[in-house]
Amino acid sequence: MRSLNSLQIGRTTRRALLAFPAGRVLKNAGSRVGFAAILAFVLAGAVSAQHRITGSGDVQAKISYCKDCHGVSAQGFNGYYPIPRLAGQQPEYFENQLRAFIEHRRTNNIMFNVAHSLSPAMINALTAHFASLNPPPIGGAPPQLVATGRKIFEDGMPEVNIAACAACHGPEATGSGQIPRLAGQLYPYLIKTLNNWGKERGQNPTVPDASAIMSPVAHSLNKSQIEAVAAFVSTLRSPRGTPNTVQ
To answer: Which residues of the chain have pLDDT under 70?
Structure first.
């Protein structure tokens, strides 16, 4: 089995394969085949061959590998299943999330296969590279939600004991240390993550996780509030200035 990089498929096809949710069922010649089984079969050979790409060797090869899914400027990919923006992300947060995949504080088989074979030196190189990038946001959030989202982000909702997002993530939404940058993050990715916080963060209760700080906030926001905050931060660049939605 050749690796995904050596298969005769384009980047868009490979990205779609990797982003497709495990468990989706396909029909093939009248038989129902679990996509998770197909993906496991493909990745079984891919992980072995890709160990050289994700574990050792040239930094540029690894950056290119990451960008196949996360976008040419690491701005994220807004497809059937949103893949997050890495550009401009806080290095400490980035490194902690790679460890989270390894320790199953976050469950994602694809990212586990990528993260567990990276050396500390390679992680440092990748975090520094992605932190240095600042492409425009992809955009696509409903513009009518931005004003409400800005108010929640900057002022919080004292009447229901929800603190301002800016208190932790900063006035420019760039984060600090293990607190992530939100500026420019994909609108659907933010919605998915906040709506499913308990299922996407802190999944290994035996390993303490900084994400616990966000749990009460994520669980206190209703659907419309989450969508508004996501709309606002998804438009932001650094330095912020004014929201800059990319059409």
So the answer is: 1-57, 239-247
Report the pLDDT value the prediction gives residue 57, as an integer from 0 to 100. Answer: 54
Percent of the chain with pLDDT over 70: 73
Nearest to 166 by CA among 184, 187, 151: 151
- The per-residue pLDDT for 169 is 96
In this structure, whether the domain defined by 143-234 belongs to CATH 1.10.760.10 is answered with: yes
Which part of the chain has CATH 1.10.760.10? 11-131, 143-234
| Nearest one of 231, 199, 228 to 215, comparing CA atoms | 199
Q: Burial level of 44, CB count in 10 A (0-12/13-18/19+)? A: exposed
Q: What CATH number labels 11-131?
A: 1.10.760.10
- pLDDT, position 114: 93
Q: What is the pLDDT of residue 233?
A: 98
Whole-number pLDDT of residue 117: 86
